[in-house]
Amino acid sequence: MVNENGQNDDWSFDKWAETYDASIASDPGLFGRYEEVLDAVVKAARLGPGTKVLDIGVGTGNLALRCVALGARVVGLDPSQGMLAKAREKVEPTMSLQLIRADQPFLSIPFPDETFDAVVSSYAFHHVSRDKKEAGLCEMVRVLKPGGVVAIGDLIFENEEAERSAVEKYEWLDDEPFSRLDELSGWFERLGVSMECRQYTPVTWVVHAARPHRVETEQPADTGEV
């Protein structure tokens, strides 16, 4: 889909940008325990002064600003110019926050391998189609330094049955390609990382996984003997 600026906007969020922050407070179903979820993502990411962070689906900047407040250097990616414009309204000149528009922020991250200490995201990964979610996780781990953390807060379900039950129960729950814990755990395992998770509402979880530290192989001493 092409937005009014002639740019690819698959998620079509430009029109939601003006009211997004207000909708957080007015929609306790979709955004239940919103502040706690964002705080949990930040805590799981193990941030500190100088930590280099990538926030994917940065939206209006709420998660990114939490990271900046802890002294992190943050890059935020989003496909929506409208969302990025609202985020820029919150950025002060002294803040270490760079906002970049990216057509496919989960699937084509415009940075080299092992660039970031943490990759975070909130309420965005469920927009990635199910057949591309594993590729999205691969991209996130690719740009993560050894020992770094991927932390995601989003609408997630334990399995297909739990998702189907929730969609039937909650009329406000849109039909999206939601993530499932059983799938996420398997995908992370194939990437060599172990996933941890915690539930915050019937439809909201925070999941995180740390990339293993690189194991340095000790080289035998060169004695000069043949």
Sum this structure up briefly.
The protein has helices at 20-26, 34-44, 62-69, 81-90, 133-142, 160-169, 181-190, and strands at residues 52-56, 73-78, 97-101, 116-122, 144-157, 179-180, 195-201, 204-210.
Verbal overview:
There is one protein chain. This protein is of the alpha/beta class. The chain has one domain (14-209): Vaccinia Virus protein VP39 (Rossmann fold). The protein is 29% helix and 23% strand. The chain is built from seven helices and eight strands; from the N terminus they run ααβαβαββαβαβαββ. The chain has helices spanning 20-26, 34-44, 62-69, 81-90, 133-142, 160-169, 181-190; strands at 52-56, 73-78, 97-101, 116-122, 144-157, 179-180, 195-201, 204-210. Strands 1, 2, 3, 4, 5, 6, 7 and 8 form an eight-stranded mixed sheet that branches. Strand 4, helix 5 and strand 5 (144-157) form a beta-alpha-beta unit. The longest helix has 11 residues, at 34-44.
* Number of distinct helices: 7
Q: How many angstroms separate the termini?
A: 67 Å
> Uncertain runs with pLDDT below 50, 5 residues or more?
1-10
Please give the domain count.
1
User: SS-based structural class?
Assistant: alpha/beta
CATH architecture: 3-Layer(aba) Sandwich
Shape: globular
> What is CATH's topology name?
Rossmann fold
